[in-house]
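Quick start: read one record
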Amino acid sequence: MSANRRDVIALGGAALGLGLSAAGAAAQAARRTGGQHPKNLTYATIESSARRLGLGLRTQRGIVDVAAYEEARKRGLPTTVEQVIARDGDLAALSGLAVSAPAQYVRAESAVKFGPVVSRAPKIFCVGLNYLAHIKAGNPNAEVPKEPVLFNKFDSCLNSHNGVIPVSKQRGVKWDYEAELVMIIGTGGSNIPKEQALSHVFGYCNGNDFTERARQRASAQWMLGKAGDGWGPLGPWLVSADQIDPTDLDLKCYVNGELRQDSNTKLMIFDCATLVSYLSENWELKPGDVVFTGTCEGVIGGYPPEKQVWLKPGDKISTEISKLGRLDFTLT
């Protein structure tokens, strides 16, 4: 007997005691899992009044604390972004809650503590050398990659809006920023055609591929300089893919309020659709996979050596992308 059928039978038995029909119980079970990802929603991970990190929805009234609402009301709603991506819970009810959540579950953005928009991922892909001006800044004679340059991060890299990176306690001195558009996969698959690739994206967010240049260049592999704890801030928002055209987004990075990076995603060498398709040729993509799509020119590592002033404790870094808000973090 399938798990879904067992769930329906069990719910049907419980429903008899509640005066519900078996058909009504089956319909309720169907609503609580599967279905399509909601459209026109903007998600966050917040420190819920339910005393844990949980799902938030950004609305015109403020942020709806979905985790607290579900703890109190027991409506079968997903309580984490990961559950939404996995289609675990009553997804159809989320759109309604965004509009009509009771006031006691709506919180001001200024009063919310954020977590990483996703805190775990099956795989975290990162793309290097994906903007021509970035490549040429580091080496005017460098060749343009014929295929995407890939490396990885880990769940331990994931960090939040208003988070901190304790560089004074980590190995390195050449700390650098890399503002990036990040994709979160919603529908997995292998060998995905490019023309279908963006339909597999759940949403988009700000990211920063924080880097230590000396460790990055210590060997032929970049992992030492790219995958330290906390070196992957994401957020504050995860915007559903139906609201975003990833081929034309302004991308900026600020250090202590000074503009350092200023470009547009239309200048990517390998656009988002190409990246999703390419990755799926080499791995089976899973819901929740994270893809950092590469940074533009303006990083410290691309400056002439005499102008390289590396980041230090106390510096505040901001990543800002059209329609995705502003991601801030501080070095300590």
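The domain at 124-331 is CATH 3.90.850.10 (Fumarylacetoacetate hydrolase; domain 2).
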